[in-house]
Amino acid sequence: MKQIKDLIQEWYGRNEDRISFDNRFFYLIELFQDLKMLGVSKELLPDVGSYLISLLSFDLADESIARINCRMIAGEITSAFKVVNKDIAEIKDTPIQIQAVVEIDDNDIYTNNTGEPDIDLRGIEWEQIPDDIAFLKELGVDSE
Q: What is the pLDDT of residues 26-45, one digit of tens each?
């Protein structure tokens, strides 16, 4: 266990300034990759986890917030361990269904399910649509 704690302490010393709430999980995965080389098993996870929580839990004034933070860290530690120690045989391939894109030939008429008439874009010259310059200025859009 001393060798494991030394590795964790070395990892923490190397990354202490870079570990944050947002990226902590990725650093834990990096650590568990190194711990896997030392043969850390599920039986040692509670000891490793409690040591990591003591290193990673920041001093928080509110006790309830500190407990929530420790629970989050514990969850991330467990997840990192599972990610790194995932047995390939446990991964089940899920069948992928690919649906062909249905080709629509609607002659540029866009139907809708309301009482409004369908939108027919056939023969429209887009350059002839006048800009509502006053409205664009109200929106703060420079139309020129």
A: 888 898 888 888 888 888 88
